[in-house]
Design brief:
Blueprint lengths: L1 E4 L19 H10 L3 E4 L13 H11 L6 E2 L18 E3 L8 E3 L5 E3 L1 H10 L9
The structure holds magnesium ion.
């Protein structure tokens, strides 16, 4: 399956334009890929949006540094063969702003995606079969 996954507040804590602290997404995302799924980064970060910094590349690099293969960035590679829509095609979307996204809160009251709950959902509906390494 193809997963479109937001960045800020979803795979890391909200700290835009900086990269936020880890919230435990890395092993879950690595395990998704190991189970044959594909991840498309689905973010509002852009290539030239903050004091000359390439904030999109910084997010892409976060995946590389964490050993998480990306299938696409802000679009699924083949989607333009059948649509001219700018929406990212995916089977499942994970976004801290989405209604129903499991979320948790840190001691400072910041909300972000709850990857333990997301991982449990993956196992419950059979998306992941192996143990997280
Ligand atoms: Mg977000």
């Amino acid at each position: 399956m193809i997963f479109a996954i937001d960045f800020d507040g979803t795979v890391v804590k909200h700290k835009y334009p900086e990269i936020g602290e880890s919230i435990g997404a890395e092993p879950v995302l690595r395990n998704l890929v190991k189970n044959g799924h594909q991840i498309v980064l689905n973010t509002m970060r852009g290539h030239k949006t903050h004091e000359g910094r390439d904030l999109l590349q910084e997010a892409i690099d976060w995946f590389g540094k964490n050993g998480i293969e990306l299938y696409g960035v802000n679009e699924t590679p083949f989607q333009h063969t059948w649509t001219d829509s700018t929406k990212t095609f995916a089977h499942i979307y994970i976004d801290d702003s989405a209604l129903g996204c499991p979320k948790t809160e840190d001691e400072e009251g910041n909300h972000y995606a709850d990857w333990k709950a997301i991982d449990n959902l993956f196992k419950k509906i059979g998306i992941i079969n192996t143990v997280i390494v």
